[in-house]
């Protein structure tokens, strides 16, 4: 996939992939409408729970992945569809495994390969769950090859297959089915591993801080949107505290503490440091986001750090807020993630108040290990505000 490509192959795959997704509505009104449709379904499911505990991450993940699935596959991840029913459960399992170890895990490559071959290890379990996703994508690619239209892209797979065919006789082509498989898996897992967990964290913060955070967001929703109209992405301009809460959760809960490896292509100097060609460089996102020289009380969840002094507007986002990484290889899903987090938070708090199950106090939410980037609290109560 794109994360493992370099040079022209990376440039062509990334530029083409983003162009296809934009043509399909990525970052535009059609994508927002799909999100709002999914939110209506989610609200109905939560209503149907009759104020009993609900599995937050599984519900949010299945909801948000439907938006991603429409872009990538042209269809939703329908839970009762035998082809797709286990996909969400396997994705949840993959995320739990992904976030259950220390911030930095150093071991020789031979040991990593050995672990991946053993079924009882974390690495082996991740490999099996990832294989389920790859098999699912291969099946979707085969379906698309059999049904592709002559000049109409239904989704990302259609667009990429068309480029593979267009360049099939070019020995230097950057477009291959193996890249399509990898790119699709990266986009799917990227969408699954960030926004759903961050929405989950936002709801936990609201449940733990009913007055300081939850009530303030609900006041903004009531004042700007009311109780009946669906919130829109445009509403963020008049809801600074809600949007600041989205920015703060991406600072406070870093999904990927250490960024993807980058390679230095030529000898470089940064300040007093000389970095020779070929050096591997990684962004310490967690270090930046918890640096007390950059953030006051960095271990605290405090949306007001993104507001002007009077609290009425968003301040300019500082350059050291790097939740979606840095440079040209930053996460292409930043826009989708921000739209989803804002709309899910605003809509759910418009309809419900969020409470801990049985009034039990929630654990410390501010821990720093990657174990804590995936919430251990799986259920919450949603009490109707109507």
TrEMBL record:
PROSITE patterns found in the cross-reference section: CYTOCHROME_P450
Pfam families named among the record's database cross-references: p450
Cofactor (UniProt): heme
Gene Ontology biological-process annotations: organic acid metabolic process; xenobiotic metabolic process
Keyword set, alphabetical order: Heme, Iron, Metal-binding, Monooxygenase, Oxidoreductase
GO MF term set: heme binding; iron ion binding; oxidoreductase activity, acting on paired donors, with incorporation or reduction of molecular oxygen, reduced flavin or flavoprotein as one donor, and incorporation of one atom of oxygen
GO cellular component: cytoplasm
Claim: Heme is one of the keywords in the record: yes
Originating organism: Ixodes ricinus
Residues involved in heme binding: 331
Keyword Transferase applies: no
Entries under InterPro entries matching the protein: Cyt_P450 (IPR001128), Cyt_P450_CS (IPR017972), Cyt_P450_E_grp-I (IPR002401), Cyt_P450_sf (IPR036396), Cytochrome_P450_fam2 (IPR050182)
Protein name, per record: Putative cytochrome
Domain of life: Eukaryota
Family classification: Belongs to the cytochrome P450 family.
């Amino acid at each position: 996939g794109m994360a493992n490509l370099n040079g022209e192959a990376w440039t062509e795959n990334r530029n083409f992939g983003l162009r296809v997704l934009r043509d399909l509505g990525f970052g535009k009104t059609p994508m927002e409408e799909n999100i709002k449709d999914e939110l209506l379904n989610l609200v109905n499911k939560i209503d149907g729970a009759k104020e009993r505990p609900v599995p937050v991450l599984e519900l949010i993940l299945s909801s948000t992945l439907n938006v991603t699935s429409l872009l990538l596959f042209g269809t939703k991840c329908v839970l009762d569809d035998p082809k797709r029913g286990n996909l969400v459960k396997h994705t949840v399992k993959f995320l739990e495994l992904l976030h259950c170890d220390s911030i930095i895990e150093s071991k020789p490559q031979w040991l990593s390969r050995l672990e991946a071959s053993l079924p009882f290890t974390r690495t082996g379990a991740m490999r099996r769950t990832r294989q389920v996703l790859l098999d699912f994508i291969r099946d979707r690619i085969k379906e698309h090859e059999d049904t592709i239209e002559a000049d109409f892209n239904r989704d990302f797979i259609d667009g990429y297959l068309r480029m593979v065919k267009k360049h099939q006789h070019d020995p230097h082509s950057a477009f291959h089915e193996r890249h399509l498989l990898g790119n699709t898996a990266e986009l799917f897992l990227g969408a699954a591993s960030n926004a759903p967990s961050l929405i989950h964290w936002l709801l936990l913060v609201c449940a733990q801080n009913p007055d300081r955070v939850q009530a303030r967001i609900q006041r903004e929703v009531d004042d700007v949107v009311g109780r009946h109209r669906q919130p829109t992405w445009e509403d963020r301009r008049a809801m600074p505290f809600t949007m600041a809460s989205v920015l703060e959760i991406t600072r406070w809960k870093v999904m990927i503490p250490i960024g993807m490896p980058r390679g230095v292509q030529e000898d470089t100097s940064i300040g007093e440091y000389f970095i020779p060609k070929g050096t591997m460089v990684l962004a310490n996102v967690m270090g930046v986001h918890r640096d007390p020289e950059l953030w006051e009380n960095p271990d605290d969840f405090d949306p007001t750090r993104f507001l002007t002094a009077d609290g009425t507007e968003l301040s300019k986002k500082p350059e050291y807020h790097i939740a979606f990484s840095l440079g040209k290889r930053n996460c292409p899903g930043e826009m989708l993630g921000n739209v989803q987090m804002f709309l899910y938070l605003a809509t759910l708090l418009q309809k419900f108040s969020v409470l801990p199950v049985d009034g039990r106090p929630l654990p410390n939410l501010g821990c720093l290990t990657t174990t804590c980037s995936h919430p251990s609290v799986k259920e919450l109560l949603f009490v109707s505000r109507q």
